[in-house]
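anyone seen this seq b4? input:
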Amino acid sequence: MWGSISFGWKLGLVAFSLIPITLVAGYFRFALLNKLSDQLRAAYEGSAELACEQVAAIRTVASLNREVSLHAEFVESLKAPIRKALYSTFKSTLV
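predicted toks r here
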């Protein structure tokens, strides 16, 4: 019984000493996630603007038969934000 008590307080000291490291890592993780959220909001705003513009001019798009090229342009506008999100998620996971 006494062995478990002596082991328990040592474990408590170790856990208590690691609290500042845990708090700093948590702060950095949330800072990275907030930065990612802001970057993605801006990137997706551009893609949404492109899509809204094309939907508003759907008659012109259909008459010029540009649906396929506009879809490709929209998909291309999403590639950079997706790549940035994956990289930022990887960094957040390391923290």
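The chain has a mean pLDDT of 82. The longest helix spans residues 19-56. kinda curious what u guys think
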